[in-house]
TrEMBL record:
The lineage of its organism: Bacteria, Bacillati, Actinomycetota, Actinomycetes, Micrococcales. GO terms for biological process: F420-0 metabolic process. This is Phosphoenolpyruvate guanylyltransferase. One of its GO terms (molecular function) is GTP binding. It comes from Microbacterium lemovicicum. Phosphoenolpyruvate binds at G164, S167. NCBIfam families: F420_cofC. Pathway: Cofactor biosynthesis; coenzyme F420 biosynthesis. Keywords: GTP-binding, Nucleotide-binding, Nucleotidyltransferase, Transferase. Its EC number is 2.7.7.105. It catalyses: phosphoenolpyruvate + GTP + H(+) = enolpyruvoyl-2-diphospho-5'-guanosine + diphosphate.
């Protein structure tokens, strides 16, 4: 087995798969206030996630895998971000694997981060990656404890991921170590529904997401789904 790197010694490439906005975040359509474009919001959420990841300590590059032209153009303009075009989307694991395959530095750790974390704070990602440096493969659960928002592999460990329904349990069954990030970490609040978005807004969403919503994020209450976003 590969000896895990010492904590904090690993530099990382973070791969973020982003679905085309036309089909991404379809569950957000229910509960959004009038005038909010779901596709534009989906792109904003992804770009806020990408920007935060690129600012995290320990991250050398962010690899965005997408077929969305607008995400491609906007992400390519960000420092430390590289885009891999996905010509035929085949699911999250395939997209992540395609991104990981382009990471050329053999001594670099690899991580896959979901692109739906609009409140992500760079320091929360940096903290999780530092924890991931001490295990071969790590995983961070979402706020509900069923999904996975981040998976990691240190240098020399073959890449593996199992995103999808109940992904946290499936990652754990494949010997991923649950990374002990705080329960209130912004890394855990992914957004699939209007209720999730309201909770993320209380944490403080990024500027793109706030602009797409057309509101001051801090005034959105954390519960009540459609009523809270009306």
């Amino acid at each position: 087995m590969t000896e895990p790197a010492s904590s904090g010694a690993v530099r990382w490439a973070v791969v973020i798969p982003v679905k085309p906005a036309a089909v991404g975040k379809s569950r957000l359509a229910d509960g959004l206030p009038g005038g909010v474009d779901r596709a534009a919001l989906a792109r904003a959420i992804a770009l806020d996630t990408i920007a935060a990841a690129a600012q995290a300590a320990g991250v050398d590059e962010v690899v965005v895998v997408t077929a969305d032209d607008e995400v491609d153009a906007a992400a390519s303009a960000l420092a430390r971000v590289r885009v891999v075009r996905e010509t035929e989307p085949k699911g999250l694991d395939a997209a992540v694997a395609a991104g990981v395959a382009t990471v050329e530095a053999p001594g670099r750790g690899r991580a896959a981060l979901l692109g739906d974390l609009p409140a992500l704070a760079p320091e929360d990602l940096a903290d999780a990656l530092e924890r991931g440096a001490s295990v071969e493969r790590g995983v961070v659960a979402d706020s509900e404890g069923t999904g996975s928002t981040l998976v990691t592999a240190v240098p020399g460990v073959p890449w593996l991921s199992a995103f999808g329904v109940d992904s946290f349990a499936r990652h754990r069954a494949q010997n991923f170590v649950a990374l002990d990030v705080p329960a209130d970490s912004t890394l855990r609040r992914d957004v699939d529904t209007a209720a999730h978005l309201a909770e993320a807004a209380v944490l403080g969403v990024g500027s793109r997401t706030a602009a797409a919503l057309g509101v001051v994020p801090a005034v959105i209450p954390p519960s009540g789904a459609s009523e809270s976003l009306a």
